[in-house]
Design a protein that fits this description.
Layout (H helix, E strand, L loop, with lengths): L3 E4 L20 E9 L5 E10 L1 H6 L5 E5 L4 E2 L7 H5 L13 E7 L8 E7 L2 H4 L2 H61 L9 H14 L5 E9 L3 H7 L1 H19 L4 E6 L2 E8 L4 H15 L2 E3 L2 E3 L3 E8 L6 H17 L5 E3 L4 H21 L2 E10 L5 E12 L3 E3 L5 H7 L2 H16 L7 E5 L10 H12 L6 E6 L8 H12 L3 E7 L6 H6 L4 E4 L1 H4 L6 H17 L2 E4 L5 H9 L4 E3 L7 E2 L3 H12 L1
Parallel strand pairs: 13-14, 16-18, 18-19, 19-20, 20-21, 21-22, 22-23
Antiparallel strand pairs: 1-2, 2-3, 4-5, 4-7, 6-7, 8-10, 8-13, 9-10, 11-12, 15-16, 15-23, 15-24, 16-17
């Protein structure tokens, strides 16, 4: 008779509910002795389950059944209630509706058929159990805690992930900013801040690279461009407008140079254009002419109409130099030659120009020494009444009595004095000398002294003039100061205050060279001048040009309307004198009445004048 025995056959996942302190002990034994009839058929069995403490509480005897489908056997003595049994599908499968239901194969010594243990627990078993309820509540609280912890974990994961993402983004942003800043620094190191053009360093680097890559039949032209009449813009309109003008110049240069040329700014109002020559040196001259024409067109800056112009010097590789330094230096020498010949022109480098540059540099050092040693003298050109020819005054014109070069005219050193700053000391000397000479004249005629636009940058100009008058004893009414229209370009408060303070001393103010440069009738309205001096370029053409006669007449009538004296400059013959008189000019000046002469020759002129009027 077989005996069925199993070890650790019964296991239960719900033993958590029982807190005996020995929950791990969840095993038991099942012993069963089958009963057969005389015909050999199985009739039943005697079974016993030996359980440990935990399972004994969870598996009462009515909650398990031993079954064998082969024999059609079912341990009726332990079968559960009919309702429960009906839901168990004859104990052949686990019941998902029970809190616990499991079918466990039994290890039997029966070759005829398989034996199984069916065990299950209905929910009702635990509904009224306080201990189980407390465990369930604890379990639910655990589920809630697990849910909260899970949510917190998810939140922490999201925060950590977001933080890491933000850190990655911040690192990428920082890297981009570093790259951008590095690019900006590199750009600033190689480009001019004001115009954005390449600077001298990048120019030299680009030139050297271009020279190395040129083919045998290719040439490179270097254009040194310098702006004409730019300094008066800075002196009168101020540096902000001057800076904006440089930006506008850079734009024009890039436009007219073309895409195959490079434009650089190497300092101040100096620019350089690199041009690749494919068809000979004529290409360089064509570009230079185009640029000069473009720079001569009017610029409009903050409501100001500005005319400057430009001069250009050209050097060509390989004829005029083999490296960037030599080419730029030789192009600069050609530029100096162009400016000396009247500006607004272009010159190509020629051998021997270097010597002229050395001469200029020597002249700069000699100018400073000449001012210190008072190597200058004044010549005086007479002014006459247009109707009566009576002497009305003299204009003081400075000459440099150069120890090496002889007597130099103002056109040969005044601009140099303005560029080097020597004009301040030279202007003060001219003022003192002119006042001192005029105080000695036998007739109380006026003396006119020219003021450079650069002198208006001095804060103490009025005091300087007052000191010259006081030192000489000259009456202020006999002093007349001549300024050009460029002084009024700025039209700012400081310039006008200086002019009014000079007028307050009792001196006269004249606008010189009216009709050229930046002519505007608004200047006559902004300050009450005593005199308008009509430029010689109009007077010299009066005999041939009806337009020039009309301009002279219009200015003379304007002066009469505004209560200003009008002086025609450059009268050199009888016909010009007649025309300026007929067209209303009140005073005349020119070689027809007398050339500039030193102070030592003035007594003879005064004597002649007295004899004529006697």
């Amino acid at each position: 008779m077989p005996i069925i025995g199993t070890k650790e056959l019964i296991t239960c996942d719900n033993t958590d509910f029982i807190h005996t302190g020995n929950d791990a002990d969840r095993s038991g034994f099942i012993l069963s002795v089958p009963v057969f009839g005389q015909d050999g058929n199985l009739r039943g069995s005697v079974s016993a389950i030996m359980l440990t403490s935990a399972l004994r509480k969870l598996l009462p005897s009515s909650d398990y059944v031993i079954v064998n489908s082969g024999y059609g056997f079912e341990s009726d003595q332990h079968k559960m209630s009919t309702a429960l049994a009906a839901d168990s599908r004859a104990f052949t499968a686990a019941d998902p509706d029970l809190i616990y239901s499991e079918v466990i194969p039994l290890s039997l010594n029966d070759p005829r058929s398989a034996w199984r243990l069916w065990a299950g627990f209905p929910n009702s078993r635990f509904d009224n159990n306080l201990e189980v309820q407390s465990v369930r509540e604890f379990e639910l609280a655990g589920y809630a805690a697990v849910a909260v912890v899970t949510l917190l974990a998810l939140a922490c994961w999201y925060a950590i992930g977001r933080t890491m993402t933000m850190q990655v983004e911040a690192a990428e942003t920082l890297e981009r900013r570093v790259e951008q800043r590095t690019a900006q620094i590199q750009h600033l190191a190689t480009h001019d801040i004001l115009t954005g053009l390449p600077n001298r360093g990048l120019l030299a680097e680009t030139m050297d690279e271009a020279l190395r890559s040129l083919r045998d039949d290719e040439k490179l032209a270097v254009h040194c461009v310098d702006l004409d009449r730019f300094k008066p813009v800075n002196d009168t309109l101020g540096h902000p407008i001057g800076d904006e003008l440089l930006g506008a110049v850079a734009t024009r240069l890039k436009h007219h140079a073309g895409e195959t040329a490079m434009v650089a700014r190497i300092g101040g109002d100096e620019f350089v254009i690199l041009q690749l020559l494919l068809d000979g040196n004529d290409e360089a001259g064509v570009l230079a002419s185009r640029v000069i024409h473009a720079l001569s067109d009017e610029f409009s800056i903050q409501g100001h109409k500005i005319n400057i112009g430009g001069s250009i010097g050209i050097a060509v590789f390989p004829d005029d130099g083999q490296n960037s330094e030599t080419l730029i230096r030789n192009a600069d020498l050609a530029l100096y030659k162009a400016k000396m010949e009247g500006r607004g022109t272009c010159r190509s480098f020629e051998p021997g120009m270097d010597a002229r540059l050395q001469e200029r540099r020597q002249l700069e050092s000699e100018l400073a020494l000449g001012v210190k040693k008072e190597q200058f003298i004044l010549h005086y050109q007479p002014l006459h009444d247009a109707k009566t020819s009576q002497l009305t005054g003299f204009e003081a014109l400075v000459r440099w009595n150069h120890p090496r070069l002889g007597l130099l005219a103002p056109s040969e050193f005044i601009q140099l004095a303005e560029e080097t700053g020597a004009i301040d000391a030279l202007g003060e000397w001219i003022m003192r000398r002119a006042c001192a000479d005029a105080a000695k004249w036998p007739q109380p005629v006026k003396v006119a002294v020219n003021l450079s636009p650069a002198q208006f940058k001095q804060e103490g100009l009025s005091l300087q003039v007052a000191a010259a008058l006081a030192a000489s004893g000259l009456l202020p009414s006999r002093l007349e100061l001549e300024i050009t229209e460029s002084v009024l370009l700025a039209n700012n408060e400081n310039t006008l205050n200086t002019l009014y303070s000079l007028r307050a001393l009792g001196i006269s103010i004249a606008m010189d060279d009216f009709g050229t440069g930046y002519s505007s009738l608004s200047y006559l309205r902004s300050f009450p001048f005593n005199r308008i001096k009509i430029d010689r370029s109009f007077v010299s053409l009066m005999c041939e040009s009806s337009e020039s006669r009309a301009i002279v007449k219009a200015v003379a009538e304007l002066g009469t309307t505004l209560g200003m004296t009008t002086t025609a400059e450059g009268v050199e013959n009888e016909d010009q004198y007649r025309l300026v008189r007929e067209n209303g000019c009140t005073d005349v000046q020119g070689w027809y009445f007398g050339r500039p002469m030193p102070a030592s020759e003035l007594p003879t002129l005064f004597d002649q004048h007295e004899a004529l009027t006697a």
